[in-house]
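Predict structure. Chain length: 89.
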Amino acid sequence: MKPEEFKIELANISILDIRTNQEWDDFNLGGIHIPLDYLLERISELSKEKKYVVICYNGTQSLIASKLLRSKGFKVENLEGGLEAFLSL
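Prediction complete.
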């Protein structure tokens, strides 16, 4: 998902933030917070019925997480460029 579309749809999407606890504490947009290191062990907290936009700082780790989640049957999109791109709008 492009940052511009994310900004428009922000109120209507389910966010999955995979950044570290410290990054989350420093700034977050809400949604579900599961650090990437714990994603597989906490995957049961996610619903296959929902569509999530996965976010991280620059979009690299969220791309990896998105591919992993898709392989497990989840509906996800990656925020291209991450929060860095979104916050620069």
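Summary: The longest strand covers residues 51-55.
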